[in-house]
């Protein structure tokens, strides 16, 4: 960078000399944090890992201007795609990943092991966009190559199983989802420290699947395992912590413990408002979750307010066909109908339920 550029500083305060487990984890993350990368490239990768995608994007845009060959550009486009994905800018993420993919195919070929990062991450974006068949196709392509080229206990293979599980979970095929999540967890338990963030992801996703199956006590147990790891190993405003709080809130709501649910959802949205752009789709998710709890508690005016925020936020951040946005609109329409019934039928007192449909949560 030139003399007009800012000085970047990253403080890694994950561990102390008195916690051997965290020391092991720190060394593992040092190994994982791209030891073959140097300087600004490595800084950008670390910033992504810490949830600082906006700062990472600035680093990569600067690097792109200075890139001297196509191989460098392919790597930078890929990382810009990751920053866009983390910020919820999914079309831009796809565009950058595809630029990287096109360059890499020219000098690696479509079935080279190094191509799997592109296939995997494009699959993740399509998953976030609700295009589950495309997501599954890309993840299965990545898995097929990785099964041929990696040791069966490689954590990268676990990521493929995990991502395929996420697609199956979202299309309601819970037995398939659980099978893939368990494969991922088994590999991670063998190959990673017990407090590694990827283990937290496995516990989180298994919890979501049990929630979809209606086994809420198991759901809560796995989400609490995930939260415990994330609290110990991530910065306090990391977006993954918000996912844990949101999912714990969903479990409590399904169990009828609405006060605990609301407390967890409020922790999630507080983190998201600090760490995410204002048009990020996860904010719409939080608004819908809080609205759902207020509706279940009979506080219809608050529910209506949060459902309206969910729809407004979702319309800015999601394609019109996305199932989450369709759910937010459905919840808002149902809430408005309930409010009209209360207004016109004065015999109903205290905001009790009037036979409308049950609102829906998303983990």
Count of alpha and pi helical runs: 16
- Report how far apart the termini are: 42 Å
Q: Average the pLDDT over all residues and give the rounded result.
A: 86
What class would the helix/strand composition place it in? mainly alpha
List unreliable stretches of 5+ residues.
1-16, 348-356
Structural Rg = 22 Å
Question: What this model shows, in words?
Answer:
By secondary structure, the chain is mainly alpha-helical. Among the domains are: 34-109, Alpha Horseshoe (Serine Threonine Protein Phosphatase 5, Tetratricopeptide repeat), CATH 1.25.40; 277-363. 72% of the residues lie in helices and 0% in strands. It contains 16 helices and no strands. The longest helix is centred in the last third of the chain and has 22 residues, at 323-344. The radius of gyration is 22 Å and the shape is globular. Mean pLDDT is 86; it is low at 1-16 and 348-356.
Descriptive terms for the model:
16 helices, Serine Threonine Protein Phosphatase 5, Tetratricopeptide repeat, 0% strand, mainly alpha, 363 residues
Secondary structure blueprint with pairings:
Layout: H1 20-32, H2 39-49, H3 53-66, H4 70-86, H5 90-108, H6 116-128, H7 132-149, H8 155-170, H9 174-191, H10 197-212, H11 216-233, H12 239-254, H13 258-275, H14 281-296, H15 300-317, H16 323-344
């Amino acid at each position: 960078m030139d003399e007009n550029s800012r000085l970047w500083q990253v403080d890694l305060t994950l561990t102390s000399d008195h916690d051997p487990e965290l020391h092991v984890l720190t060394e593992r993350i040092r190994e994982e944090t791209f030891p073959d990368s140097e300087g600004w490239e490595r800084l950008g990768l670390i910033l992504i890992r810490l949830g600082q995608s906006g700062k990472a994007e600035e680093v990569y845009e600067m690097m792109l201007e200075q890139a001297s060959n196509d191989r460098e550009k392919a790597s930078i486009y890929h990382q810009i795609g990751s920053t866009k994905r983390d910020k919820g800018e999914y079309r831009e993420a796809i565009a950058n990943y595809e630029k990287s993919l096109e360059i890499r195919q020219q000098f690696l070929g479509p079935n080279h092991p190094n191509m799997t990062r592109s296939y995997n991450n494009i699959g993740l974006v399509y998953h976030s966009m609700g295009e589950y068949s495309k997501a599954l196709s890309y993840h299965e392509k990545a898995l097929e190559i990785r099964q041929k080229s990696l040791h069966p206990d490689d954590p990268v293979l676990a990521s493929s199983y995990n991502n395929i599980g996420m697609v199956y979970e979202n299309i309601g095929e819970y037995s398939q989802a659980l099978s893939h999540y368990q494969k991922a967890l088994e590999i991670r338990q063998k190959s990673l420290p017990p407090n590694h963030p990827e283990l937290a992801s496995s516990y989180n996703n298994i919890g979501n699947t049990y929630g979809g199956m209606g086994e809420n006590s198991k759901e809560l147990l796995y989400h609490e395992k995930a939260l415990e790891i994330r609290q110990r190993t991530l910065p306090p405003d990391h977006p993954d912590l918000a996912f844990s709080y949101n999912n714990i809130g969903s479990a409590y709501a399904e169990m009828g413990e609405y006060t605990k649910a609301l407390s967890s959802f409020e922790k999630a949205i507080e983190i998201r408002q600090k760490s995410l752009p204002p048009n990020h789709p996860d904010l719409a998710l939080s608004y819908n979750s809080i609205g759902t709890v207020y509706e279940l508690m009979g506080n219809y005016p608050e529910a209506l307010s949060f459902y309206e925020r969910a729809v407004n936020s979702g319309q800015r951040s999601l394609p019109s066909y996305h199932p989450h946005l369709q759910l937010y609109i459905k919840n808002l329409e149902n809430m408005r109908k309930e409010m009209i019934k209360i207004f016109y039928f004065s015999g109903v007192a205290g905001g009790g339920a009037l036979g409308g449909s049950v609102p829906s949560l998303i983990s």
